[in-house]
């Protein structure tokens, strides 16, 4: 066992030694570690083995050195012999080199010169080649500077683009090209700022020029409309000429860039006048230039948004009116000119540029502007109280609408607004004509028109449609039944129709619509303005009965003239009155109402006059006997009534209708006066403040009533049948007869019978009057109680009073 282990150990040591000899020194560590990891004291045996191996190698080295030592000695001896030859050869080589150097020095110098020249030539060629690359860059950069100095910014941007994409990349390694490349973005920003500054200047300038642009466009539109009207007239006369004038003064069509292409023909009056367009008045180059610049720079959207935003702001400023715009037509004209100028410019931009503004954008602007314009016009037109100013405003609105319609903007809402303005115009006309009518009525003398010659007659008839065969047969001088205000009113109504017609012109409405407008406005004039003036006139305190009678005559003739006004409107509009929707004039009802009001005022004033006379009555109610004649105040009253009713003979009676009408008015007035007189006299008798009435006073009162009855029977107004007028005093007559005859037995016996002689005597009335007489009888004679007759009469009165009271109580129950 010990021997086997020793053999294994020796074998292992041999392996380790071979491994150490054949392995790199850095890897010996693991091998040596394995020696210590084996059996105990194995390293000692290994060390012994290692020492034996070292001695073995030393012996081998010594044997090898001994073997080669003689050869080494021989080699050293040979080397020493060669050294002398080598030194001799070195000297020869050095000498040869010196001679060679001396011989090639000139050649070397020439060769270096040639090399230097070749290098220079190559550098020059390289320089030329590089310069040929750089010169175009420098030339383009110089060109860029010139373009910037001459403000040709769009060309400058194109030059920059070429520099960046073509030229600079060829010579990008040079410092100056790098500087150029670094400068180009800065130059672009400068160009953007400059072009934007130019655009701002343009926007500011366009605000100043919008007024002029709009004025020119509206003038041309007005000329176009005038020309078309002339052409229409020529066409209607059979002399049609091809239209040669339009919005810009000549026939035009829209080209793709939005400019107006004008024909060479034109109106002779405008031949020498240069027709201006928006381009003639405004320099649009800043817009085009800025648009192109931003397009090239790839920032077109920013420019479009900025332009549209600024124009929206300007639109809002343009749409703001001056506070006193409504005071003069110039204020409206300037307002419209600015708006038209604004949208003419936008229309030009729309057609001259691609996408800077779109149709949707302009439509949005126009709709916003249209709403604002309509609101402004509604507000300011409401302040106008001058019809001439409203008419001029209407004409401006029409020209304004026609101008913008020519540029493709919808204007229907403006024409709808004109209907509102028309109502305002009619209101101002009505106010104006109200003053005219008042002045006519104030200056009228309310007497028939005297005509001394046929010329005067024809002059009146030419102003007012008056036809009366009887008056025409009369010799001059003669009088026409109406007063001077009638032809004046008729003429003014026609003037009103003309004034109203002026507003209807150029509204693009049919003849039927215009006819309807005229008739409605004329109806307003008749039923509201003229009717109000007539009513106020009738109510004025200084208008007497004579004037009222003349007013009735005047309204009658004006009523007859209404059909001529119908014909007048028909002739103007050429619309047949038989048309289904034709509006009729309400003048007949207007003048009838005025006439009825005048008649009522006549009745009222007559009654007031009667009251004034009755207030002059001064009866002595305790008189013993009457004076034997009627009272003075009553005779004056009757004379006044007689003279007054004579005035009614002047009422119109030229035909049966008017005769019956005039008779009715006179009869009604006379009957009203008599009834009022009878009622007033009755109230005088029954006045509660009157406590005592004597029989003498009754007799005096009876004389006055007899005069009233005589007046009624004298037929102060013809046409009454029988004693119709006397019946107004029947209540008084029966009451007075009852007291004068003292026929109480008959009254009491027949009371309530239809055939009663005192049918109209009311028991309460008789009782009131009888009690006043009873009190008088008591006080007339303090000794009456001692006379038998007086005592009997007093008893009779008391008996009658009791019976009357029973009748009154029976009626009340």
From TrEMBL:
Note one Pfam family from the annotation: EXOC6_Sec15_N
Keyword Transport belongs to the record: yes
Please report the stretch or stretches of sequence annotated as the Exocyst complex subunit EXOC6/Sec15 C-terminal domain: 414-772
Q: Which UniProt keywords apply?
A: Exocytosis, Transport
Function (record text): Component of the exocyst complex involved in the docking of exocytic vesicles with fusion sites on the plasma membrane.
What name is this protein filed under?
A: Exocyst complex component
Domain Exocyst complex component EXOC6/Sec15 N-terminal span(s) in chain numbering = 49-218
Q: Which InterPro entries match?
A: EXOC6/Sec15 (IPR007225), EXOC6/Sec15_C (IPR046361), EXOC6/Sec15_C_dom1 (IPR042045), EXOC6_Sec15_N (IPR048359), EXOC6PINT-1/Sec15/Tip20_C_dom2 (IPR042044)
């Amino acid at each position: 066992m010990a021997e086997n282990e020793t053999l294994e150990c020796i074998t292992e040591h041999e392996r380790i030694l071979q491994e150490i000899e054949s392995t790199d020194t850095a890897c010996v560590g693991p091998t040596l570690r394995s020696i210590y990891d084996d059996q105990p004291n194995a390293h000692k045996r290994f060390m012994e083995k290692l020492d034996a191996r070292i001695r073995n190698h030393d012996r081998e080295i010594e044997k090898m050195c001994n073997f080669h030592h003689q050869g080494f000695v021989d080699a050293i001896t040979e080397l020493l012999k060669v050294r002398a030859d080598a030194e001799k050869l070195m000297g020869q080589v050095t000498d040869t080199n010196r001679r060679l150097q001396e011989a090639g020095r000139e050649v070397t110098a020439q060769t270096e010169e040639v090399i230097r020249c070749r290098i220079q030539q190559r550098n020059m060629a390289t320089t030329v080649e590089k310069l040929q690359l750089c010169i175009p860059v420098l030339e383009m950069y110089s060109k860029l500077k010139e373009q910037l100095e001459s403000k040709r910014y769009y060309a400058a941007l194109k030059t920059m683009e070429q520099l960046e994409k073509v030229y600079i990349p060829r010579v990008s390694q040079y410092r100056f090209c790098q500087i150029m490349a670094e400068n180009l973005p800065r130059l672009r920003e400068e160009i953007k700022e400059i072009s934007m500054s130019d655009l701002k200047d343009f926007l500011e300038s366009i605000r100043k020029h919008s007024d002029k642009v709009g004025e020119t466009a509206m003038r041309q539109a007005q000329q176009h409309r005038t020309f078309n009207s002339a052409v229409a007239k020529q066409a209607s006369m059979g002399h049609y000429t091809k239209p040669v004038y339009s919005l810009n003064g000549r026939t035009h069509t829209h080209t793709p860039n939005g400019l107006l292409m004008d024909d060479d023909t034109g109106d002779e009056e405008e031949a020498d006048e240069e027709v201006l367009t928006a381009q003639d008045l405004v320099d649009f180059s800043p817009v085009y230039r800025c648009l192109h610049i931003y397009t090239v720079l790839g920032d077109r959207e920013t420019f479009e948004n900025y332009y549209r935003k600024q124009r929206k702001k300007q639109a809002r400023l343009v749409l703001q009116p001056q506070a006193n715009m409504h005071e003069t037509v110039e204020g409206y004209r300037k307002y419209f000119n600015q708006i038209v100028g604004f949208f003419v410019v936008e229309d030009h931009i729309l057609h001259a540029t691609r996408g800077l503004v779109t149709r949707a954008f302009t439509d949005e602007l126009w709709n916003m502007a249209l709403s604002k314009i309509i609101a402004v016009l509604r507000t300011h037109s409401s302040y106008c109280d001058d019809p001439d100013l409203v008419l001029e405003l209407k004409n401006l609105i029409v020209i304004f609408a026609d101008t913008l319609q020519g540029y493709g903007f919808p204007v229907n809402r403006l024409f709808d607004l004109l209907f509102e303005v028309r109502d305002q115009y009619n209101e101002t006309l009505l106010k104006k004509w109200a003053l005219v009518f008042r002045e006519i009525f104030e200056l009228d003398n309310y007497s028939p028109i005297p005509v001394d010659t046929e010329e005067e007659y024809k002059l009146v008839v030419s102003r007012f449609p008056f036809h009366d065969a009887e008056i025409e047969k009369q010799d001059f001088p003669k009088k026409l039944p109406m007063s001077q205000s009638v032809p004046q009113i008729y003429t003014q109504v026609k003037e009103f129709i003309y004034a109203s017609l002026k507003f209807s012109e150029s509204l693009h409405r049919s003849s039927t619509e215009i006819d309807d407008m005229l008739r409605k406005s004329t109806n307003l004039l008749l039923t509201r303005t003229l009717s109000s003036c007539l009513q106020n006139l009738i109510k004025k305190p200084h208008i007497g009965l004579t004037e009222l009678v003349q007013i009735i005559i005047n309204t009658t003739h004006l009523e007859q003239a209404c059909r001529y006004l119908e014909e007048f409107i028909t002739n103007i509009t050429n619309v047949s009155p038989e048309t289904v929707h034709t509006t009729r004039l309400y003048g007949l009802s207007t003048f009838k109402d005025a006439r009825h009001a005048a008649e009522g005022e006549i009745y009222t004033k007559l009654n007031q006059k009667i009251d004034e006379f009755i207030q002059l009555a001064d009866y002595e109610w305790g008189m013993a006997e009457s004076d034997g004649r009627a009272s003075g105040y009553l005779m004056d009253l009757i004379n006044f009534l007689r003279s007054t009713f004579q005035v009614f003979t002047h009422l119109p009676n030229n035909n049966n209708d008017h005769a019956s009408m005039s008779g009715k008015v006179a009869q009604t007035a006379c009957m009203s006066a008599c009834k009022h007189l009878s009622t007033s006299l009755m109230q005088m008798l029954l006045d509660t403040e009157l406590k005592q009435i004597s029989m003498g006073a009754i007799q005096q009162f009876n004389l006055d009533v007899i005069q009233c009855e005589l007046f009624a029977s004298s037929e102060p107004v013809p046409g009454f049948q029988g004693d119709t007028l006397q019946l107004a005093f029947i209540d008084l007559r029966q009451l007075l007869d009852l007291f004068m005859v003292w026929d109480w037995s008959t009254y009491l016996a027949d009371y309530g019978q239809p055939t009663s002689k005192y049918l109209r005597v009311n028991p309460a009335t008789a009782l009131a009057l009888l009690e006043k007489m009873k009190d008088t009888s008591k006080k007339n004679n303090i000794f009456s109680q001692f006379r038998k007759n007086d005592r009997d009469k007093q008893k009779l009165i008391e008996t009658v009073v009791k019976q009357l009271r029973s009748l009154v109580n029976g009626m009340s129950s």
